Amino acid sequence: MITNVNGSMEVFVIGTDSGVWHQWQLSPSGAQWSDWSSLGGSLVTVRAAINQQNGLVDLVGLAMDNSYWSLSHVNGNGDWDVWTPLGGNFTSAPSAVFDGNGLLEIFGRGTDNALYRSSASQTSPPLHFTGWTSLGGYLNNGPTAALNQDGRVAVFVEGGDTTFWTIEQSLPGTW
Fold this sequence. Notes:
- By secondary structure, this protein is mostly beta strands.
- The chain has a single domain, classed as Fucose-specific lectin (Neuraminidase), CATH 2.120.10.70.
- Helices cover 0% and strands 45% of the residues.
- It has no helices and 15 strands.
- Strands 1-2-3-4 form a 4-stranded antiparallel beta sheet, with no helix packed on it. Strands 5-6-7-8 form a 4-stranded antiparallel beta sheet, with no helix packed on it.
- A hairpin with a 5-residue loop joins strand 9 and strand 10.
- The mean pLDDT is 93.
């Protein structure tokens, strides 16, 4: 679920057809919602992220073949883009967040249980992503990414030693 830049909420789920479906409030704080609408895809999980600076909504999902896929939309302005393969081989749902520079950062647990990262190279669709880079570690579960107040991304994981670990950008956009 996200809160769009106009204040209305939007919900994303995986349907029985393995596609992504969404529904949104027709007005902020309103009781009326749209009908469910299909966005396609063939996914196991999906996560949504929104860039509050420009309203860009991006969905990142884990596909049946354990790769990640992405779908973008400029909130309230035009149609959704097409599903884009991001590749990789993952054992967890993705975690996605826009960094302080407005670039989408995506994280996942690879088949070697290490933390992997990819980043968009621009702030408007169609988004193009860097290749997957290992940030190391040994994860028991999938990562959770969040944006610090100063614009840096922090990623939280449960390590192989069952303790809580974090890695953060040194500056927005720099690992």
